[in-house]
């Protein structure tokens, strides 16, 4: 089956280079790595575009104010494309790809870039403009920093969403320097999922959902989604910036595309989100361009904007699909407020613009407006991340308890569960149990499990043993959630397949790889026997050295009891005469562009109980701790100190405590290499 449109006859395939690019695309998609993956059938890589500029412009044109011509100097052969007369960063060179690209197919784009001699350096971008229903969208495929007069080879992958017209282009971040382009080669691969696999929704007793973007509905991705999920959450399309970019202008097209698809596939929709501190346009918090104050008039204005926004969303979906709770309308739940907790604040509430202008009252108001607008059939959720950590759990629980006591219509509590392999599952269960005491339902709203334990790890694809470990983690997490199934309205995973995660490349946090094939993570949920038993006992078992020598059972060979005492004597097994003050630290992080969440598990591997402890380590890459939990955190230069909270100071031999923090970094996030507990160096790992 051809994976993309035929190569225009004018374009000559460059077979070796194409094969290399396709191989790259497959590695990026994980197709060559996951040993448990069903073979990625029906892969049909095809070169869809080549331009070597040796006999003309090969269909390339000027974009914006620029002019284009060919030069005699090529990256490898003779000839390249020269872009001149640029004024703005978006002026450049483009090639129309309307007839070349197909929505939902994954393309690998390779090209060479440089600046002319003497032009200094510039940060360049390879981008795509897609126009749909008269609305342009601009997507950066890759940014190439510091391009000089040396040729640089660039590779990017890209999966277009729907478009009426589309163009591939080269631009810059800011400099209008002249640019040279050569040897452009684009190949496409259409991946085909295995639809004979058991749907995840059949294996999970709670309604199972996946968060999606419009690209996830197309081609093989759409087939995969329809096969495994029974509800979707729009990843970005229902956020305030998507729905009301300027005051009074409502744009529902992208969100409606997702809802229409859900209806066609008999699925429910979980709405996300009516209020957030991110992805909310500035105009919400301004009057005539100036920041709103806390005056009664400004407070009334912001409250009115909140009410208007919520009503507009509710009215739109009622008018379009019928009353909520009737068969035509699939929206059954909505995140009303997202991420309003900040455990480092005395009142536990985030200091957002909402809070600055309105104080804490906006939360109850949002729920009341939502109930009035949506009616009783839509479940109203509060949603947050890191809710498993005790320091976050406490203010979350307090807030929901207070809201319920005031009669505020909160129906459900969401736990995002953006975690990494190894984050404590018992801690998650403790949070679930804490909320089971309240009159609310619960949902896992954004589960994903990064394969990276910390920011020191980096790879194109996780090693096979880590993917297996991730499979065990999903298995254990879902098994725990199943024990609480009656407390849950739904369980949603934040993304369909690894190539489209919000996490950094290589995190591979989802159930399917970029080639749409099942990973061990899928089998961990659907049929754990396919990934075998956990190979080694979990580290906490080894923490009690006195217990280890129960290697005794050999006596069956010689039943004479006299043999036994010699067995017990194996003192060499017991680690050196018990150290009263030994410790071990496991440090994991979940990274994004400029920030990270770190989980730190401290285990007392010594023989004496601690009452009160202090952990020290260094962040040597300029990282800053922005917010910590389950300990009192301070930072001086690179040195970070965490001192126990009032409730977790006692640490028995073999006992562990989980603490953590959010941090910022500026591009690199090296992990700390040494930790000390009360000044005593700890084992790491
Ligand atoms: O998945 C979303 C990603 O595409 C956006 O760039 C990002 C912007 O803030 O938001 C992501 O979704 C977030 C969700 O809305 C709330 N919880 C955290 C999610 C991951 O950042």
From TrEMBL:
<dbReference type="InterPro" id="IPR017853">
    <property type="entry name" value="GH"/>
</dbReference>
<dbReference type="InterPro" id="IPR012291">
    <property type="entry name" value="CBM2_carb-bd_dom_sf"/>
</dbReference>
<protein>
    <recommendedName>
        <fullName>Beta-xylanase</fullName>
        <ecNumber>3.2.1.8</ecNumber>
    </recommendedName>
</protein>
<comment type="similarity">
    <text>Belongs to the glycosyl hydrolase 10 (cellulase F) family.</text>
</comment>
<keyword id="KW-0326">Glycosidase</keyword>
<keyword id="KW-0677">Repeat</keyword>
<dbReference type="Pfam" id="PF02018">
    <property type="entry name" value="CBM_4_9"/>
</dbReference>
<dbReference type="InterPro" id="IPR008979">
    <property type="entry name" value="Galactose-bd-like_sf"/>
</dbReference>
<keyword id="KW-0624">Polysaccharide degradation</keyword>
<feature type="region of interest" description="Disordered">
    <location>
        <begin position="534"/>
        <end position="577"/>
    </location>
</feature>
<keyword id="KW-0378">Hydrolase</keyword>
<dbReference type="InterPro" id="IPR001000">
    <property type="entry name" value="GH10_dom"/>
</dbReference>
<dbReference type="InterPro" id="IPR044846">
    <property type="entry name" value="GH10"/>
</dbReference>
<dbReference type="InterPro" id="IPR001919">
    <property type="entry name" value="CBD2"/>
</dbReference>
<dbReference type="Pfam" id="PF00331">
    <property type="entry name" value="Glyco_hydro_10"/>
</dbReference>
<keyword id="KW-0119">Carbohydrate metabolism</keyword>
<dbReference type="InterPro" id="IPR018366">
    <property type="entry name" value="CBM2_CS"/>
</dbReference>
<feature type="domain" description="CBM2">
    <location>
        <begin position="576"/>
        <end position="685"/>
    </location>
</feature>
<keyword id="KW-0136">Cellulose degradation</keyword>
<feature type="compositionally biased region" description="Low complexity">
    <location>
        <begin position="534"/>
        <end position="576"/>
    </location>
</feature>
<dbReference type="Pfam" id="PF00553">
    <property type="entry name" value="CBM_2"/>
</dbReference>
<dbReference type="InterPro" id="IPR008965">
    <property type="entry name" value="CBM2/CBM3_carb-bd_dom_sf"/>
</dbReference>
<feature type="domain" description="GH10">
    <location>
        <begin position="200"/>
        <end position="528"/>
    </location>
</feature>
<dbReference type="InterPro" id="IPR003305">
    <property type="entry name" value="CenC_carb-bd"/>
</dbReference>
